[in-house]
Amino acid sequence: MLPPTLTLRPRRLHSRPKPHRPHLLLTALLAALAIAGLAIVLSAAHAQAPAAPPPAAPSAQSPDQTPDSGGPAVDNGPIVIPRKKESEEPLPPAPAEPKVKNPNNETYSLRVDVPLVSLDVSVILDKNHQFVPGLKSGNFLVLEDGVEQKVDTVRITQTPITAVMLLEFAANSWYVINDMRNASIAFFGSLHPDDYVAVMTYDLQTHILSDFTNNKQIIAESLNSLTFPGFSDTDMFDALYETLDRVSRIEGRKYIILIGTGRDTFSKLTLDKMLAKIKATPNVTIFTIGTGALINEMGAGGGMREMNYLQAQNQLKTFASMTGGISFSPLFQGELPDDFAQINNSIRNQYLLTYRPTNSANDGSYRKIKVILVDNEGQPLQMADERGKPLKYSVIARDGYNAKLPVE
């Protein structure tokens, strides 16, 4: 059987008529003419239009050189402030001032320094140890190295005291230790609530029993602890030197109540160095209470012992007189209240004098001072009681001071 066959019918194709070539050339020519005419018209219009403004300055700069905007943005753009160039050349230096040379090429300096000297003066009657009030500036004659000084101000001061009780506590004699205890207890009883007191003892070494305090209970405990002495040596010079060094760091007026025999047995310092230290320490007054006076009177009869005692007492008096203090050598315990009453009148009631020395040189020299009481006519002041009897008095003041050193 034969497979079926597909019958393909031929499809009639309709072909478009081909355009004529002359017609295409004419169309292209007309288009070229139209384009050329349009170009001529546009060129003429562009030539008659106004010139466009040049582009803004920021667009011509690189991004790294964009200036900071110095004002608010407006319709015409921000106000441009150029940044200051970092590589700007420094200004030329100012011309040097002409140097004026001193004669012989010496160096001179001008310094105005007017020193002011403050002097504590106590005026006490010799009979009853009472303070003498009511004195004026005209009653004080101050001599510095023999030259009269003009006193500027005079006033009475009554202030609490800052004092050190420097006690000799050595294994020498029970009578001497008992005198020291009685004297220290008498001074303790004269203290006021606002007084600051430290307690120190010395034998071969210096011992601090209590630092500065106004607690009387602490001071009493320190005094009660003095029961059994250690060494028999008394290094008074070393102990007093150390005490002066400690109180010199405290501002204001200070007092040292030195209670002892005045003997020095084994100090490293000499008497000359001790005296120099006292002169170099300002605003310190030393009061001395000599112990063992009764034993010396009972055993008096000359010899080396008597000489040692007299030398010791003379050293105590020297320490006191150099600083404007008073020295006592009581024989009996009953004298102590009057002695400390005189000390209280001296340190709690004083005249504070100020003057400007005529010698203003800052040479560090020691200036000797002497204070004399005079009347309105410049004669020595005479005092009398209610019955007209003359009264003797003592003027207690420091015997000198060290001038300031020059400032380099």
Rounded radius of gyration (Å): 54 Å
Provide the spatial order of strands within the biggest beta sheet: 9-8-7-10-11-12
User: Which class of the largest domain in CATH terms?
Assistant: Alpha Beta
Mean pLDDT: 79
Strand content: 15-25%
Tell me the number of helical segments per DSSP (H or I, 4 or more residues long): 8
Helix/strand-derived category reads alpha+beta
Low-confidence stretches: 10-17, 56-71
| Oligomeric nature of the chains | single chain
Count of separate structural domains: 2
- What name goes with the CATH superfamily of the largest domain? von Willebrand factor, type A domain
CATH architecture of the largest domain: 3-Layer(aba) Sandwich
Question: Which topology of the largest domain does CATH recognise?
Answer: Rossmann fold
Q: How widely separated are the two ends?
A: 147 Å
Number of strands: 18
The biggest beta sheet reads: 6 strands, mixed
Helix content: 25-40%
The dominant shape is elongated
> What is the string of SSEs from the N terminus onward?
HEEEEEEEHEEHHEHEHHEHEEEEEE
Draw up the topology in text.
Blueprint (H helix, E strand, L loop, with lengths): L20 H28 L19 E2 L10 E2 L35 E9 L14 E5 L2 E3 L1 E7 L4 E7 L5 H16 L6 E7 L3 E8 L2 H9 L11 H12 L6 E7 L10 H10 L3 E7 L2 H6 L4 H21 L3 E2 L7 H13 L1 E6 L10 E8 L9 E2 L5 E2 L1 E5 L2 E3 L6
Parallel strand pairs: 7-8, 7-10, 10-11, 11-12
Antiparallel strand pairs: 1-2, 3-13, 3-17, 4-5, 4-14, 6-13, 8-9, 14-18, 15-16
